[in-house]
Here is the input.
Amino acid sequence: MNTLKVCILAGDGVGPEITAEAVKVLKSVCNAKNYELQLTEGLIGGCAVDAEGIPLSPATVEKCRAAGAVLLGAVGGPQYDSLPSNLRPEAGLLAIRTKLGLFANLRPTKVFPILKEVSPLKNKIIENGMDILVVRELTGGIYFGEKGVTEIDGEPSAYDVMMYSEYEVERIAKVAFEAACKRRHKVTCVDKANVLESSKLWRRVVDRVAADYPNVELCYMYVDNAAMQLMRNPSQFDVLLTENMFGDILSDEASMLAGSIGILPSASTGHGTLGLYEPIHGSAPDIAGKGIANPLATILSVAMMLRYSFHLENEALSIEQAVEDSLFFGRTPDLADTAYPAKTTAEIGSFIAERVAEILK
Ligand code: NAD
Ligand code: IPM
Ligand code: MN
Here is the structure.
């Protein structure tokens, strides 16, 4: 019998609401297929600060390591914004990524045909199809470089260093090229090589890695242009490879092509077997506790988990199909319109859990 060990880190804000729905769907898959599901729960972010005084305790890290995969909701909230950087909820998220060696963050963006009307872009721009995989470097760059406050000519000043080693670039570039081989064989490396020394290093290393993938077309694009091209002609992109901060920003931008940030999942992986799966959005404090957060990003993250951590392709596809079907049944307010009146987070989650069971029957 297949045993799935999953550690749930619900986190803050809408985190507990959306992970509850994703767990419903995961349980439904395991029920339908007679898999044993072993769930554990851990604290991360603001809830960990409240309970333990720190955003990520060794106990949570241990729980993650003991699991086959981790499902994370989101962290953060305005009540924690004045804490020192190392105690902020976000520090817990950055720490779990480093501690688990999760240097590769995969953020797929697709337009579900039925959501074309919801996308703020004109139909003629997205109707060519838009299917982009953002491969975001996750444990290096400006997030993790030296930072501090200082004085320049008596003026209070601050700095954050963006630094990359060749090794860090090489391993993420390989992830992007491997992904492109299974897709449309194109990698666009997004950087700021007209200004940044670190981007020049990226280009040298990416060129070298590309030589091992003659069937993959490589092009480079400056990040400011890429932000514009995503709106102008998103179907030109297949795999978009980029550093940590650019990837964070561009993936939020790309999410709106699909209709809402509430539907984009992600997978974070490394050289080990353990993966962490989370929506790309945050804790959405403005809608937390109202039962209206879109659970699709987290549910689709479970599909990525089944695919990458447990090699259950059919089960992953069944979730993706059920999510698409749910768009005809009802939507949370971020996607609702007159034809599809708003439903709650829990109603959508329950629909998908039942639909998955039917598909897998
Ligand atoms: P956010 O992604 O939380 O919210 C941005 C906007 O998108 C808000 O209007 C929100 O209501 C909406 N939104 C987000 N997720 C949604 C969903 N599932 N359904 C419907 N609407 C949704 O970004 P923010 O407001 O900049 O950040 C809020 C907090 O979350 C901050 O503390 C930030 O640091 C944190 N954050 C955490 C993560 C993470 O845990 N991975 C990611 C981004 C931001
Ligand atoms: C994300 C978030 C995080 C990031 C923050 C909360 C540290 O925006 O997961 O996209 O920038 O990586
Ligand atoms: Mn982000």
